[in-house]
Amino acid sequence: QVQLVESGGGLVQPGGSLRLSCAASRSIFSINAMAWYRQAPGKQRELVATITSGGTTNYADSVKGRFTISRDNAKNTVSLQMNSLKSEDTAVYFCNAITVVSGAVGAYWGQGTQVTVSS
After folding, report:
1. In this structure, are residues 28 and 97 in contact, taking their beta carbons and an 8 Å threshold?
2. Contact call for residues 24 and 32 (beta carbons, < 8 A)
3. In the prediction, which pLDDT does 76 show?
4. DSSP label of 101
5. Which H, E and C letters describe 24-92, residue by residue?
6. Taking Cα atoms as reference points, which of 18, 52, 17 lies closest to residue 35?
7. HSE-up of residue 60 (Cα within 13 Å, Cβ side)
8. What is the DSSP-derived secondary structure letter of residue 19?
9. Taking the CA atoms of the chain, what radius of gyration do you get in angstroms?
10. Contact, 95 vs 23, CB < 8 A?
11. What is the mean pLDDT, run by run of 10 residues, along the chain of 119 residues?
């Protein structure tokens, strides 16, 4: 079991930056992958960025070059640095963790944090 708590959301003007953090209730060292998803009103939840236990990252095309995902195993946190924000980045952002134990896959979600990009 892993509990995830996101923080760092808020209101920012277009072109601005925000840094989201996701705190895990236990060590993330053995968590296979962690990710950030987002869901805008009336739209499906979409994958934003992932980072594996080995540090490999992947990004949605819409955020490449603007967002950076990172993990701090010592602090049990995963962060999402968001730069050059656009109005279309407005959404609730969710932290996700994937564990694989003895072949069983577990998926865990945080409660989400609102990001609003508006002038």
Report:
1. yes
2. no
3. 92
4. E
5. ECCCCCCCCEEEEEEECCCCCCEEEEEEECCCCEEECCCCCCCEEEEEECCCCEEEEEECCCCHHHCEE
6. 52
7. 14
8. E
9. 14
10. no
11. 94 98 88 94 96 95 98 93 98 94 90 97
Contact (CB, 8 A) for 37 and 47? yes
Residues 78, 71: Cα–Cα separation, whole Å: 4
Measured CA to CA, the distance from residue 40 to residue 6 in angstroms comes to 17
Token pair, residue 24, equals: 């895990």
**Integer distance in angstroms from the first to the last C-alpha of the chain?**
40
Segment holding 10, helix H or strand E: strand 10-12
The tokens of 38 are what?
């987002």
